[in-house]
Amino acid sequence: MSTDAAQSGETTQIEVTEIAAEQALDLLESEDLDPGVAGLRLFVQQGGCAGLSYGMRFDDEPESDDTVFTHHELRVFVDPASMNYIEGSVVDYETGLQGAGFHVDNPNVVSECGCGESFRT
């Protein structure tokens, strides 16, 4: 069963900045996905030199056991296993000399690899 934590009054465990939500919603719409149903899946996978890495993709709808967060009209889907690693994180969109992209600020990280692509909790 999915829950919409941001709308049910529960403590929000994943946040999304306004600029990140705007960028993701633009991408969702360019993929012809309905932002009222579809959303950004944020997950953790094995890999990278530090052991774990973030993954993001668009899904048509949440899975039955996902937690669903809504920020700035963007729905974010997180599976239970990934939530253990990324609870309390903030998803942001950054621009700079090395390019632009989504960034996860995770308070649970104890070390990151040099390139910032993988982490350990």
TrEMBL record:
Q: Name one GO biological process term.
A: iron-sulfur cluster assembly
One of the entry's Gene Ontology molecular-function terms is: 4 iron, 4 sulfur cluster binding
Q: Where is the Core domain?
A: 13-117
Coiled-coil residues are none
Top-level taxon of origin: Archaea
The name of this protein is Core domain-containing protein
Q: Which organism is it from?
A: Haladaptatus pallidirubidus
List the lineage, top down. Answer: Archaea, Methanobacteriati, Methanobacteriota, Stenosarchaea group, Halobacteria
